[in-house]
Amino acid sequence: MIMRVWASLAVPLGEPHLKRQNSQVAEITGQVDLSTWTKGSRLTVRRTKLKEGDQPSIADHDGYRFSVFPTDCKGSVPRLDLFHRGHARVEGHIRQAKDCGLRNLPFHSFAQTRSGCGS
Question: Any idea where the domains of the chain sit in the sequence?
Fold first, then answer.
């Protein structure tokens, strides 16, 4: 059973304010048939306690939201989750920049765009 192996999330060095009290991670590789997957594949799951005001989804269970991600990396589950969260955060910033019009700038370089705006 997974519930016995939940671990606290890793926190980036020097950033204790990023500690998440209501989230844990576990590896579920042994609970799922991965025989058709690439050798060395692993599955990690993160559970986060829903907070007041969170919009529940159909996938939430017992007051927790679950996120599963595959990896073929070695290392501790909390460190893999930290890497995954950092990567997702960067992708989110890129998506946000594109949504705000970054893709619509008329030139490829900042200097060209700035001069085109009359600055």
Answer: 2-103
